[in-house]
């Protein structure tokens, strides 16, 4: 049996390919029945005998006219169709289609689908095209989800602060993880807190997207977190990618995702991890439940656990991102014109982002030179116009000090004076934030 040509992957998506591959590999294991092996061997022998008969006929009738020979070849080919294998991929050193031993390594390894599986570029392209048609027909796109600081937060048990030790007596049962959010994983010496709203987020997102997990954590950790998030295997199936599966060190890439880039969205807290796919990225506000997480990113403040608080369930980061994903999904499928396969979700994402600060005219005052280019870029991506000099059209002065000349001008002219976090919050929540929540305090003498 051919893993490729007989595979459901020719008519369905990567999940079917995964299932078929597992079945095929199981069937070729030492546990396979002797009858199946004998049947397969008989088929190979039958083809070999027909080929020998054809070769013998060609040798003994070498003087036959060209027309008769062509006729015999046509008849022979009609009874024995001999395919030249294109070697679409390999398992170990064997072609997954014909079983031939292959020299060298080419293509991309998909170890998260099955250990040792490598697919060549043409096969990857074929699977992506097949997958895309299937999911677009079902009104689904792709969503690649980071774990740490995006969907959850994890700490080493030994790194719990003295003010977090109360958590050791507040963990939820691992018998039914669907009912809990705080888990102690003794065998990994870890504690994990799921982000508020994450279960609702995954349930509703799964109706619009085919979802992957992609983490820089190692594979055992990734699989443990997947069990906490998806205990019934409803959302991710075999689509759990770890750092062990990546093709570039310290980088994540869509080369190991069986989805067309034009239909993939990425949700991650780290922009630098996706240098080649920034147009697919939705940057997520980091979730710092544990003190060790705060320290990791240089925050000198108490963690949520230490203050015995948490993000808002219905008005927090994941809830806001879900609203935006629904808008992108609706725009892609219901508002764009033309064939579905020609649409690009990256353009939709850019369009939705460009409306957030539309109509805002911004000027910056005394912003750190290192931070200024990034703030300006983000504001412009969200539709704002950024000026270098004061102008009557300015609507917002962004500053960290209310005592600067531009800040005082904003107060006098009754313009909005906001802290840079106003731009950052709009970017994270995909929504213009109330200016009164980002008041700037006077910290220096007027200039």
TrEMBL record:
Its EC number is 3.1.3.16. Residues 33-45 have a biased composition (Acidic residues). GO terms for molecular function: metal ion binding; RNA binding; RNA polymerase II CTD heptapeptide repeat phosphatase activity. GO terms for biological process: response to salt stress. Residues 352-440 form the BRCT domain. Residues 23-32 have a biased composition (Low complexity). Its main location: nucleus. Residues 1-70 are annotated as: Disordered. It comes from the Eukaryota. It is an enzyme of class 3 (hydrolase). Residues 1-14 have a biased composition (Polar residues). Keywords: Hydrolase, Metal-binding, Nucleus, Repressor, RNA-binding, Transcription, Transcription regulation. Residues 136-308 form the FCP1 homology domain. Coiled coil: none annotated. It is found in: Nucleus. Signal peptide: none annotated. One of its GO terms (cellular component) is nucleus. Its cofactor is Co(2+); Mg(2+); Mn(2+). Interacts with RAP74. NCBIfam families: FCP1_euk (TIGR02250). This promotes the activity of RNA polymerase II. This is RNA polymerase II C-terminal domain phosphatase-like. It comes from Medicago truncatula.
